[in-house]
Design goal:
Strand order of the largest sheet: 1-7-6-5-4-2-3
Helix content: 40-55%
Strand content: 5-15%
Order of helices and strands: HHEHEHEHEHEEEHHEEHEEEH
Bound molecules: pyridoxal-5'-phosphate
Largest sheet: 7 strands, mixed
Number of strands: 12
Radius of gyration: 21 Å
Number of helices: 10
Length: 415
């Protein structure tokens, strides 16, 4: 139930946030133009919805989608495939494609996303990069920015093959990395070593601003289609976009050496991929507006939030730092109760594979694990942070947030 107090507060919020919303809508407009122009340039026709089976030779839709992605990202080539399970699989593919035994991979944004730990070999696995003799080094961020001195030192002392930069914060407490910060560090790196491959984990960041990482000098950009660019329309898959020689290596690693991009049946997914991309600027905008409203309301109610409602955003993720276990659980449960799917399920903290602490997850989504749909989760450890992201429309997001915030107030007054 939405309380009267929250109705009043939300009205007030929307008046106050008008200008901030408008800025976001201008970004949506810009990115929508980008998408529409790319569709036209590559002549997307109804024939593109046809599918191939078996080997997947001559898949017009698949090949056209990859050209459209390249135009949008201003890259030389792209791989957009449902054969990628998810973003992690595409990141893993890109790393195995670019690195050879003896090479060194360097992360300059601290510890990478949890699911990459076994891929890299930070946690032991017999199929990790480490098991093939690929070395790994890591530099922590300092004050939410890159450690330039350390980057220079390592690049001068060693031959680094690939640098990974994860823009979104994952389950960490740091801020996400804006395109401006990315541009600055890439120029810095390329001045020291122009050959090092710069690979960006771009999950959650697509269409948040008007520029994408290739435009600021990245070589390879990777993301998931059950996040921003799938807009909730895509059942699975991921993309890699960037330098042509590297995309060829990625295609041969995903598929077969010697066959690369030429194979891979689209099995009826082309239309989904196209609608997802077409809707993405608008769905990303709805997600960000939902995040901004969340940030505003929870701050007004006395909670610590990151980013704040007026901060410049790099991704669609909103943190609420509850500093209280019960509040985190209640909030996630209330978000679940306002979901389209499984609204009557009560999420509780559980031991998720691969995580040290228990995690609570609210995800009443059409697609399993889809986090461009409204979802909220958090590890059960201090300071009890909720990681909320997504919403296919602003109204659905707003309904869920108003309900969740009302629930928090209710339990406050009961005490
Ligand atoms: C979600 C995410 C991934 C992994 O993507 P999946 O599609 O869940 O495999 C990797 N990196 C970051 C920063 C993410 O947010």
């Amino acid at each position: 139930m939405i309380s009267d107090k929250i109705i009043t507060l939300t009205k007030e919020a929307e008046t106050k946030l008008k200008k901030i919303y408008q800025e976001q809508e201008e970004i949506e407009f810009f990115n929508s133009s980008k998408v529409l122009n790319a569709f036209k340039e590559h002549n997307v026709t109804e024939d593109c919805f046809n599918m191939t089976t078996g080997y997947g030779y001559n898949d017009l839709g698949r090949d056209t989608i990859e050209k459209v992605y390249s135009t949008i990202f201003k890259s030389e080539d792209s791989l957009v495939r449902s054969q990628f399970i998810s973003g992690t699989h595409a990141l893993s593919t890109a790393l195995f494609a670019c690195l050879r035994p003896g090479d060194i991979m360097l992360s300059i944004s601290g510890k990478p996303y949890d699911t990459l730990e076994e891929v890299i070999g930070i946690r032991e696995n017999n199929s990790s990069l480490k098991s093939y003799g690929i070395k790994y080094q890591e530099i922590e961020l300092i004050n939410d920015d890159f450690n330039y001195d350390e980057i220079k030192k390592i690049l001068t002392e060693n031959k680094i093959k690939l640098i990974e930069i994860q823009r979104s914060k994952g389950y960490s407490t740091r801020k996400s990395i804006t395109i401006e910060k990315l541009e600055k560090v890439i120029h810095f790196i390329k001045k020291i070593d122009k050959d090092v491959i710069i690979m960006i984990d771009n999950c959650y960041c697509e269409f948040v601003t008007t520029k994408e990482p290739i435009e600021v000098g990245a070589d390879l950009v990777v993301g998931s289609l059950i996040k921003n660019l799938g807009a909730g329309m895509v059942s699975n898959g991921a993309y890699i976009t960037g330098r042509k020689d590297l995309i060829t290596l990625c295609a041969e690693r995903l598929n077969v050496a010697g066959e690369g991009k030429e194979v891979g049946p689209s099995l009826g997914m082309n239309k989904q991929f196209l609608i997802g991309l077409y809707m993405a600027p608008s769905v990303v905008c709805a997600s960000i507006k939902t995040a901004i409203l969340t940030s505003y309301l929870l701050e007004k109610l006395g909670y610590e939030v990151e980013p704040k409602y007026h901060d410049k955003r790099a991704d669609i993720v909103q943190n609420i730092i509850f500093k209280n276990k019960e509040k985190l659980i209640q909030y996630c449960q209330a978000i679940q109760a306002s979901s389209p799917i499984d609204a009557n399920v009560l999420p509780i903290p559980w031991d998720m594979p691969g995580y040290l602490d228990q995690v609570i997850m609210a995800a009443g989504t059409f697609t399993q694990g889809s986090s461009i749909e409204l979802s909220c989760d958090g590890p059960i450890r201090e300071p009890y942070i909720a990681y909320q992201q997504g919403s296919l429309t602003y109204s659905y997001g707003k309904i869920a947030i108003m309900n969740a915030v009302s629930r928090l107030l209710e339990t406050n007054s009961k005490k």
